[in-house]
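ugh ok so i messed up the first submission bc i forgot one of the chains. this is the corrected input, ALL of the components this time, i swear. 489 residues overall. if the numbers dont match what u have on ur side tell me asap before i send this to the collaborators (the ones from the other lab, u know who)
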Amino acid sequence: MRSAITVVGASLAGLSAARALRAQGFEGRVLLVGDEPHRPYDRPPLSKDFLAGKVSLDDLELSTSDDDFDWQLGERAVALDGQDVLLASGERLASDGVVLATGARARRLPGMPLPGVHTLRGLDDALVLREELVAGARLVVVGAGFIGAEVASTARGLGLEVTVVEALSAPLAGPLGDEMGAVCAGLHQDHGVRLLTGVGVAALVGEDRVRAVRLADGRELPADVVVAGVGAVPCVKWLEGSGVRVDRGVVTDARCATNVPGVVALGDCASSYNNFAGQAMRLEHWTNAVQQAQVAAATLLDKEVPARAVPYFWSDQYGVRLQFAGHRRDGDRVTIVDGDTAARRFVAVYRRGDRPVAVLAMNQPKLFGRRRRELAAAVPQPA
Amino acid sequence: MIAVCALQDLPPGEAIRVDADVPIAVFNADGTFYAIDDTCTHQDASLADGWLEGCQVECPLHASCFDLRTGRPSGPPAKVPVRTHEVVVHDGHIYVQVAARESALA
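and heres the new structure output, hopefully the right one now
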């Protein structure tokens, strides 16, 4: 019987876990520790409507007056001692259960920090960046992943001249494959964004402020603003010496349990075994944070774990909504089963042999929802 | 009162979006009709595109559910219920009586 549980990380994953603990009947203390001063807020709009100035901070806030937790915001966790959490302030939070939800931080380019060069992960990043996205400015986005593509889309809508640089042969070739990556490339081109693929960045040019991006092939792209969307690194360094196993994230089983009893992990900082994919995955996606929260809470409270859903993510680029469910590997075969890629309105299914393993849609939420459920129906349940 | 469609155009398990001042989604949940504001929070997803299961509709984007009877969300990012509206079936047609703007449960 636990009496106090500390949740480290007060973003969507941590908040969702704290709520799940309450929803599953935990009546003891729930301490929510967050290193940002802000209450939990919704991150997806940071690269879209918030960056464009269309929604306010109030619109992003996720917590409500129903959230019955002991908030410890603006506090950094520096160590985990058994099930006690040590804060930078020197305070020790005595707990008999710990939820690790510390998320991830944006990877940086060599040469950062340099004024004019940004990453976008949190609210403060978005506040600084949006001041620099003025019409007519030249923006170079490094990395055509979700953050990069969404920032490029938003900036283009704000009237900036945008160039996107991607080291792979196509945007989102990792999650979506080359063929669908080429369709994503078309979204940029449709909207007058210059996309350079298959080329890396060698250096940022500028002393007091960025003025260009030098590519690996020697070309220099003039830049007033640069955004680096080159991935994220899980925030797990503070766990060194705790005994918790880390390998590209906190290692957990499908139930979010770590190797340390009474400690669970979820969200962007966790490398969790995924039944659908049949492997450990670090899923940096919104829905995963919410769904894993139910699992983590059940595990900590020794309750039956709810069924895991299929991995799912979405992205909004240039008015087109991409939705993807499942897990793709090299060698999977993709076919369009509805609609037309040229119209940017279609559903594509990926198959491994004859077995559907993933589905991608652009602007087809209803059909996508049905296909996603079909994938879920095929998920093998834990023994 | 807003005319929605003929009864046969909204079979069980389906939803239809009505473009009113604020868009409204009308659902046939196993033969019972419900109507709620169509938009999940941040105005970025249409609930009429969501998955209907019993009296719950799942946002097609966030996968959080809304209870068709109360408008209450099951999880983030929605914080407040969406408005619910009365559905009237008359002479083989479906109509919605739009609720006052402030009537969502506090």
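quick check: Chain A is about 20% helix and 30% strand. that seems consistent at least. The mean pLDDT of chain A is 94.
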